[in-house]
Protein: Odorant receptor 131-2-like
Organism: Chanos chanos
Amino acid sequence: MSTVNNSNVSTDSGFYIRPHSERVLFAQVLVGIFLYVNSLMIFTFLKKDVFREDTRYILFALTLFSDSGLLVTCDLALLGIYYEYPIPMIPCCILCTLMNWLNDCTPLTLVAMCLERYVAICMPLRHADISNSRNRKIGILIIWTVSSMTSLIGIFGFLAVNPSHILLSYVMCTVDVLLTFAWQAQLRAVLLQIYFFCMFVIIVFTYIKILMAARAASSDNKKSTYKSLRTVALHAFQLFLCLVQLLTPYVELAVLQIDFMLFVDVRYANFVVFIIVPRCLSPLIYGLRDEKFFLVLKHHTLFGLPKVVSAVFDARQCNKTRRLHTDS
């Protein structure tokens, strides 16, 4: 039975070398900016009842939470590799399982958001009935359950095929640690390919349906319909980046056979392009393109300063008007 190269288990194996500090610093800056923006958006979501009662914004908040969690866990793993700091196997298994779960959660949430737009545009009279509180809870539970399947299969498969004493070892923690045998990596790849094929079909279906609705819509509704169409297209691009991420381990493995330094460069580039960048698109799609959410976000970002300035200006104008009437 063939095995996956787990040379990262040993700290003196030479599999990892400390990358350039500028790269790690650049990654920390990107992650810090991302988490700051996400924190502002989560705060904005929690402060307004109208957002907490809207399915579209609830799913958006779900992506913010899962993306933020994924960035934090991936960044912890990156820092552990950079500082060559081995950790016990049990915490590493928990961290890897959490990373896999959060990584699979975002694409499923994107599909749910596309379906919500499809119902809102193509079935507006039934949108309120379908997007009720009960169905939202069921939908979120389905997303969490389905996205956890591959990570649970991975951790249980790891525990089943490895001796118990391996849990007492120390490792340089990456998701590759759980893939002891080649068939585990192949099984995970097959499951993810099935997931992404189903999600791709759903997104294409919703895009076509919304496109048909946009062409048949009246001039008053065309603007909102085409905006939803662009939103679905952006979600499809996010899903494409997540799909490409499935291929990165195979590319990294092939590059590793050629040149190790090139492998380090490719792995770092994959982290930035296929982990960080797709997670930056959700805030762009809903946080900046949605006028209602953007206005509230702008208010909290500037700590309510425009409102204070406006109130002071109005007060001064009122006092000036009063003085003019008094003088006259």
The longest helix spans residues 219-256. The chain has one domain: 20-298.
